[in-house]
User: Which sequence fits this backbone?
């Protein structure tokens, strides 16, 4: 599966985005972490800006999102999303991650999408001055990718994420049209 990453989606993805964020069948398994994330960072909201969709945290101006899409039968399909914030100048925290209900839990595809999202976020973090770590809030403990002393160019490949199935997937970056 070829996965593309982008920060906004066309309006045609509204229903699939609502299902992904608010009615996702995978939410039950992450419920304690989701409650913790909402308590710490606020409720995610779907927003429309300039004819495009994105997800933000209602109570934080520093939140951003990243979507994962693929092409099925000639149409763009939303397969995942990560919502992240920068609570301190040195930290980037992935507050929410979601995989579409059509992606089987525990599958190589699910792991690949999650790993691809984390790699893209680490690549983003490597280009922002002052960020020293990326944390994944959904893990039982903060999952940190420390790279203050590492060369910035190695960030995307050095992320400490518990899934190793990325090599079976092709991760490209484009505009999720």
Assistant:
């Amino acid at each position: 599966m070829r996965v593309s990453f982008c920060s906004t989606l066309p309006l045609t993805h509204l229903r699939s985005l609502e299902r992904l964020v608010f009615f996702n069948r995978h939410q039950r398994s992450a419920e304690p972490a989701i409650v913790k994330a909402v308590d710490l960072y606020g409720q995610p909201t779907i927003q429309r800006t300039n004819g495009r969709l994105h997800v933000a945290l209602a109570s934080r101006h520093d939140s951003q999102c990243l979507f994962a899409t693929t092409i099925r039968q000639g149409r763009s399909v939303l397969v995942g999303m990560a919502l992240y914030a920068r609570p301190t100048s040195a930290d980037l925290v992935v507050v929410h991650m979601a995989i579409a209900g059509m992606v089987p839990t525990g599958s190589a595809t699910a792991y690949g999408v999650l790993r691809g999202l984390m790699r893209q976020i680490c690549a983003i973090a490597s280009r922002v001055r002052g960020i020293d770590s990326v944390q994944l809030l959904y893990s039982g403990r903060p999952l940190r990718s420390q790279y203050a002393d590492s060369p910035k160019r190695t960030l995307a490949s050095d992320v400490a994420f518990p899934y190793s199935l990325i090599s079976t997937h092709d991760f490209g970056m484009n505009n999720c049209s």
